[in-house]
Design brief:
The chain is mostly helical. The chain has 22 helices and two strands. The protein is globular, with a radius of gyration of 22 Å.
Amino acid sequence: MQSNVVLNQQPAVRMNPLQRTTQLFAAVMERYLPDPFVLVMLLTLVMLLLGTTVSHQSLPAMVRDWSNGFWGFLEFSMQVALVVVTGYALAVSPPIAKLMNWCASRVHSPRGAIVCATVVSCITSYMNWGFGLIAGTLMAQQLAKRTRGIHYPLLIASAYSGWIVYGLGVSATIPITLATAGNPFATSIGGLISLRHTVFLPAVVADAVVLIVTLPILNILIHPRPNAVLDINPSSWESTDSQDSVPTAKTPAEKLERTRLLNVIMVFLGAGFLAYHFSSGGSLDIDTLNVIFLFCGLLFHGTPAAYVRAASEGVRSIGGIVLQFPFYAGMMGMMKSSGLAVAISKWMVDISSVHTLPLFGLLSSFLINFFAPSSGGHWAIQGPFMIEAAKSLGADVAKTSMAVQMGCSWNDLVQPFWLIPILTLARLSVRQIMGYTIVPFLWVGIVYVVTVLIW
């Protein structure tokens, strides 16, 4: 892989405590953190060990459960893949790209670049986690190309730290599931739970605002000393503007591929689909979000050929996700069949009260997310038990469910699964980024724990 960063030699400057802490974490990650695919293999072995020791399952039974779950989330895998691909295609569309370039051109300092990358990632991720995951990274790249003296791995990590706001936003999987008609929990909870009882709770909205304000400041404070800065090397990047390399259409087929009429017709069909969906009582779920971003991408790219090129570029970023999802699905199968997830949740519930159940839901969710880094699959395992626990203790089901969602997103700062598409785009290794997410991880944990204790 061609290097895209260069060492910026500057006189040494005394570090603040957060810088020293971050550099320690960065050094540890650089030395000991394996590739995400190796990590999923190790986690699989850990799950086998936990199943045979904690849940007292036989090894053949655990292997059987692993194989049964291995292909159990193909539908959800495709949904997740489409979230990333359609989010990427929308993020690189001409209107969004121009907006990013305009924003990047207004930034002239490393601190401004960190603030811009973090805030853009926070806001776009609040809207849609797939869009935000890609948009934040592309924004960081634009800023790195224009700003000297910025530590590129930290800039990418800043965008990733802003991404975790998705767990408080309108695309958060667990709240959307509970608000979707026909979801498997509707009968047990006596109906649907509106988003105003989850992501639009005043405390949750306040958390989103707090993180949008504080994460950029925190990322500025952990920026390395000038003599340790790794600048991006602009000459190592190829132009991402695919529109400039499109040859003139000569044949009828090529002209058809470049006609705007087909995209316009599809966009009108998509608008009709959404109008029918919502008028007939449909809610905002992962499929609906994919439809919205798919047809917005078609509209913004203008022609079928332009959209296909953008989507094809996005597909390259999900190779690691597609490869690893079966392994995580296998671990989910083992957790569900062995009762390990229920055992973790039950232990937390046994020491909980009506007031502390959301807190222990948050903590158990955090632990489970190491082995099931997907809110949808995660909720399928942990959700039934947490809902029953909330009902038996008289706790608020909506708040308990939201706490589980917050635990998922909090864990993502130290679980590198969702870094995979970012690594492809940023041309960095996971070891170069993860050290800079630990301090934000600790801060987000404080914010979330305080929230679930006071609400």
